[in-house]
Design a protein that fits this description.
Strand order of the largest sheet of chain A: 9-10-13-11-12
Number of domains of chain A: 2
Catalytic activity (chains A, B): tRNA(Pro) + L-proline + ATP = L-prolyl-tRNA(Pro) + AMP + diphosphate
Oligomer: homodimer
Largest sheet of chain A: 5 strands, mixed, barrel
GO biological process, one term (chains A, B): prolyl-tRNA aminoacylation
Protein name (chains A, B): Proline--tRNA ligase
Domain Aminoacyl-transfer RNA synthetases class-II family profile (chains A, B): 33-315
Low-confidence stretches of chain A: none
Keywords (chains A, B): Aminoacyl-tRNA synthetase, ATP-binding, Ligase, Nucleotide-binding, Protein biosynthesis
Helix content of chain A: 25-40%
Structural class of chain A: alpha+beta
Distance between the termini of chain A: 20 Å
């Protein structure tokens, strides 16, 4: 993409109405735009990042047999009454249609997925199954001041699994746990992300959150350095020790919840009378699990974790472009490199803008944060190539023109 | 995908609460599920089709320099008041947040895109630009009885373009028209789809709809067979003739509006005071166009147009799978073919279900409507291969095992 054609441009001033770092810098760099508290437009650069996160999630859900669906956002009042959550679920947006029917905007989808799955999963032969969606969700948050970390409107991957018995759910739950860690590893968040024990509800002693350490986090977790797990605030009050090794020496830290998994048991299958026939022809209750992960919150988390005073430092796996190619008054030579990179399917943002000073181009490249900066100038061409610098590093070098493609091809 | 693993199964009964053919058959075949009037869940097969339509649209929007974004669905009351549409826009869903702020659910996005574009498009050098999104939209429809043709919640591609002058908009408008016809051609709808003259508003004599002929259509159009254009009901009342050739002999037909394009002029840029600096440093009003197209409505339209009494007949470009491979008690041989097809990136649904009779497998294949049916049975293997049949045809033949990949590779 040529930067001269890009819809957005960077913004120098810190947005006045935005207190969170992730939103401030994502707005300044042109990734998102604020519509209201907790409500953002995703702009071309931001949508590229979001789609890359979504595709990593899809990839890993496929490895655990997750089938993608897309459920309705308008959800009828009756299904929420069936589970007694119409008045009890925190932060439902409610509205009334022309037909005088009441709806909630989907904040989570147990109430939709259970009656849906009931239509198709009737026999033990049809279990287990697992379906997920990546969808815009709505929560009527009283405070939404953390940018992409807490939205009134945000993206969520929510998966639901259906099992014939507890052992099957337990096994699948462990597979999901492993898939989640593969996702965080691909996002560069693995080292900072802790499996965190949380309250489990009626059907399990614990559920699990995935918490990524950062000072911007709204949660507090308590880390056991022996086991490399943590517990959340709820659990620390009940058990003042690590649930794995009973170690009492836990370290408090601030963190962002980047995922959570939960054994629902029969809570929702009971409410919707979802049963299956076992191999003896007996009706049995279906056992469920649910597995959430927020792609837009993850985008905000990555920005909180990977940055310096000059801007964002995107992990290569979700960077809007792999390369930011800057032409310093050498558009002809730079354009040849640009076309060659495109021909080889290497993602590149080409700063071809003619009236922008070198200093401003460097500042933009640092703010936007693509992994590699290539600079084409009279000086670099004289030195036999293009200047190359990795985003977080200060080390520059010259790469010969004929080695560029090879360097960036997989 | 193995059909034994597929989340859905086909349904024999016609859903009682559904009067439209497209929804009846899409529900029976397992593409969608009804949540309420005009509200559907997209299931694995249906989401595959929807994504294919979306990707064709993305492809063609890229050829006319459209940049993809994703705007908020929660839109603040104030922006609708700015354009005087809070009380005047037909069918806005409205709701109140915890902060006592009022919102509309996005039914269209001029009120969001104009203040957004105003932040970035300030100089003649930054024009023209065109941005689009593919997004779930909400309309508080009083009647929603036409299945995917009229949703309370539905998918829309909405594009907005910004120009320095009318001539530039006029030229871009023609480019969009051509891109739309390329989309309909790729969907197999070209021959049935008419450029239809519609009322133009304050800034243009006409706007244009794209109307696809089918008895299921809720619109009436009046076709000039000389020019291959049509006019809609509004226009026939004003001008009782073809606006291109003045022919008065127009033929009435029922049709579905599968797209519409509109020259907005300065209506929204005036409302939001969006101006740009021209090359003399003078502030000028930005000229806008908007371009809608409904991927989920198109999915319903395709089903209304391409079907027979046995089921859906998907065009290859958007079929959920290219091939439906049926094993009649020959799972081992069929599985080898399945793996070979997958290895060659040929999309295949493999009916590997062991306790399902041949007749039911044939009926499912016809109902689901993949373009090619391959049957593996003792008989076909004895005849040296696999039975092949194109979905709409009754002609069957045997294709040798070693020619299958070649036949379906591009």
């Amino acid at each position: 993409m040529k930067q001269s054609q890009l819809f957005t441009k960077t913004i120098k001033e810190i947005p006045k109405d935005e207190t969170s770092f992730n939103a401030q810098i994502l707005i300044r760099a042109g990734f998102v735009d604020k519509v209201g508290a907790g409500i953002y437009n995703f702009l071309p650069l931001g949508l590229r990042v979001l789609n890359k996160i979504n595709n990593i999630v899809r990839d890993e859900m496929a490895t655990i047999s997750g089938q993608e669906v897309l459920m309705a956002a308008l959800t009828p009042k009756e299904v929420w009454q069936t589970t007694d959550r119409w008045d009890n679920f925190d932060a439902l947006f409610k509205l009334v249609g022309n037909d005088d029917k009441e709806y909630a905007l989907g904040a989570t989808h147990e109430e939709i997925v259970t009656p849906l799955a009931k239509k198709f999963l009737c026999s033990y032969k049809e279990l287990p199954k697992s379906i997920y969606q990546i969808q815009v969700k709505f929560r009527n948050e009283p405070r939404a001041k953390a940018g992409l970390l807490r939205g009134r409107e945000f993206f969520m991957k929510d998966m639901y699994s259906f099992h014939a018995n507890q052992a099957d759910l337990d096994q699948y739950y462990e597979e999901v746990k492993a898939a989640y860690f593969r996702i965080y590893a691909r996002l560069g968040l693995e080292d900072l992300t802790y499996l965190t024990y949380s309250s489990g509800g009626a059907f399990s002693q614990f559920s699990h959150e995935f918490q990524t350490l950062t000072e911007a986090g709204e949660d507090h977790i308590y880390i056991c350095s022996d086991c490399r797990v943590a517990v959340n605030r709820e659990i620390i009050k009940e058990h003042n020790f690590c649930p794995v090794c009973q170690n009492k020496n836990l370290t408090e830290a601030k963190a962002i919840e980047v995922g959570n998994i939960f054994k629902l048991g029969t809570k929702f299958s009971k409410a919707f009378d979802m049963k299956y026939m076992d191999d003896n022809g007996q009706a049995q209750e279906v056992i469920m699990g649910c597995y959430g992960l927020g792609p837009s919150r993850i985008m905000g988390t990555v920005v909180e974790v990977f940055n310096d005073q000059r801007g964002i430092i995107w992990p290569e796996s979700i960077a809007p472009f792999k390369i930011h190619l800057l032409s310093l008054k050498e558009n002809e030579a730079a354009n040849e490199i640009y076309l060659e990179l495109i021909k080889n399917n290497i993602e590149v943002l080409f700063d071809d803008r003619e009236e922008i000073a070198a200093g401003e181009k460097f500042a933009d490249a640092d703010l936007i944060g693509c992994p590699y900066r290539l600079v084409v100038s009279a000086k670099t061409l004289q030195a036999g190539g293009v200047e190359i610098k990795a985003r977080p590093s200060d080390q520059m070098g010259i790469i010969p023109l004929n080695q560029i493609i090879n360097k960036f091809s997989h």
